[in-house]
Amino acid sequence: MIAGIIPVRYASTRFPGKPMIEIQGKSMIQRVYEQAMQSNVLDKLVVATDDERILQHVQSFGGNAVMTATDHASGTDRCWDALQQIGAGYTYVINIQGDEPFIDPRQIDELGAVLQDGTAELATQMIAVNNYEELFDRGEVKIVLNDKMEALYFSRMVIPFIKGVDEKEWHNHFTYHRHVGMYAYRRDILEQICGMPVSSLEQAESLEQLRWVQAGYKIKCVTTEFESHCIDTPEDVEKVLRRMGR
Fold first, then answer.
1. 3-class state of residue 15 by DSSP
2. CA count, 13 A, side-chain hemisphere, 26
3. If pLDDT is split at 50, 70 and 90, which confidence band does 14 have?
4. Residue 154: C-alpha distances to residues 8, 140, 193, 202 (Å)
5. Distance separating alpha carbons of residues 69 and 77, to the nearest angstrom
6. Can you state the angle between helices 105-113 and 28-36, rounded to 10 degrees?
7. Residues 152, 193 contacting (CB under 8 angstroms)
8. pLDDT digits (tens, 9 = 90+) for 162-208
């Protein structure tokens, strides 16, 4: 069984109260929840929050929500807290980003499809890179894969380097992928990684998933064609609405 967990917090350096902002008549967290509810792979969906206002708001529109500790360092830790509260019957957790109000439920289904045989330890998504600007954007995390579609490394830099070819043509000579940040965790693995200290690679690139790679865990990568439309600042709301054609 698969639980979908949406970890959200009220405090935010760049955008306090972000989950509660109104987007075309509904709060962002309600939009995320309603989109995720349309997925075909989730056996349960719950919002994991550290704020009573968000808890009550989710319950007011009929959603499930649980209170978690206020000191979690990441959404991964918050997912483990919530999973312990909702019961032991779930083999996998899909961590659904609380700042993507227009997430396509088919994207959740794509990730869930690789969990069905129970062998995947961790899973995430990626999308092909087909232009120079995106490839060399250090805000976009690139993934290096092995032949089993498992992540060898994640980096803000472009890997591999292509010798003897102009950088602006690299994407025409190698199939690069960038990370799309939704994760799935097997329950036993989630418990293990939440007890691990920050690793040297994670600290260097500020990428949580490098802690898991460095420790030897296998992250299955699934190709998607659905773009990620995150809202990190108030200005992003209008940008996302324009991109989505309102």
1. coil
2. 13
3. low
4. 24, 10, 17, 10
5. 9
6. 50
7. no
8. 999 999 999 999 999 999 989 999 999 999 999 899 999 999 999 99
User: Parallel, antiparallel, or unpaired: how do β-strands 26-27 and 122-128 relate?
Assistant: unpaired
Sign of CA dihedral 107, 29, 34, 86: positive
Token output for 170:
């690299």
The b/e string for 44-53 (b: 16+ C-beta within 10 A; e otherwise) is ebbbbbbbee
* Helix (H) / strand (E) containing 242: helix 234-243
Tell me the H-state helices in 5-104: 28-36, 52-60, 75-86
Residues 97 and 229: their CA atoms lie apart, in Å, by 10
User: The tokens of 225 are what?
Assistant: 């064609």
At 228 the pLDDT is: 76
Beta strands (DSSP E) in the chain are 2-8, 22-23, 26-27, 44-49, 65-67, 92-95, 122-128, 142-145, 151-155, 177-186, 219-223
Contacts of 45 (CB under 8 A, 6+ apart): 3, 4, 5, 6, 33, 36, 37, 63, 64
